[in-house]
Design brief:
elongated, single chain, mainly alpha, binds fe (ii) ion, about 0% strand, Ferritin, about 170 residues
Length: about 170
């Protein structure tokens, strides 16, 4: 019966064995390797954000094209700044910065561009919360504070995008 329980999947799709293993890891705390791997995941999403904003700026269309283009282009320097910070930090921690780019979803529909961007910004906020907790657990207080500043940036981006989507009639 205990064996069957180990294979049983819960609402999260994880077995009891997976959950026990995760709890064991959480107890031990994250390692520096986990932190570097997480920062590399973040870096791949930042590369993806640069590509998405560049292409949305070029693909947006219609009577408000100029405003939308300006908005998307204005995001690029912030995301590039994030790639710089992450790559520098990964090197400083003794890791190798990734060349991978997270999957980029592109559309020619203006509203969808903002919806996709909002999804990306919100997931960045979630990831940087996780990363700040990892940094904190490792005693990397400076990094934790810098990651919290990234949370500020990405939250501001998400709020700006929400303003575009508010009362957007099809
Ligand atoms: Fe970013
Ligand atoms: Fe952002």
């Amino acid at each position: 019966m205990a064996k069957a329980e180990g294979k049983k999947k819960g609402g999260t799709g994880r077995t009891k064995d997976d959950e026990r293993a995760a709890a064991g890891r959480a107890k031990a705390g994250p390692s520096k390797r986990d932190l570097i791997a997480g920062l590399n995941e973040d870096l791949s999403w930042e590369f993806g954000a640069v590509i998405a904003y560049r292409l949305f700026a070029s693909l947006c269309s219609g009577p408000y094209r100029q405003e939308m283009r300006q908005f998307f282009e204005a995001e690029i320097p912030d995301e590039l700044q994030h790639t710089q910070f992450l790559a520098d930090k990964i090197v400083a921690l003794g890791g190798h910065p990734t060349t991978s780019v997270a999957p980029v979803e592109i559309t020619t529909d203006n509203r969808r561009m903002f919806e996709l961007s909002l999804k990306t910004e919100r997931s960045a906020v979630r990831r940087y919360h996780e990363r700040a907790a990892q940094a904190d657990a490792l005693g990397e207080t400076g990094l934790r504070i810098q990651l919290e500043n990234l949370i500020v940036d990405e939250t501001t981006h998400a709020e700006e995008i929400e303003r575009f989507l508010t009362n957007w009639k099809r």
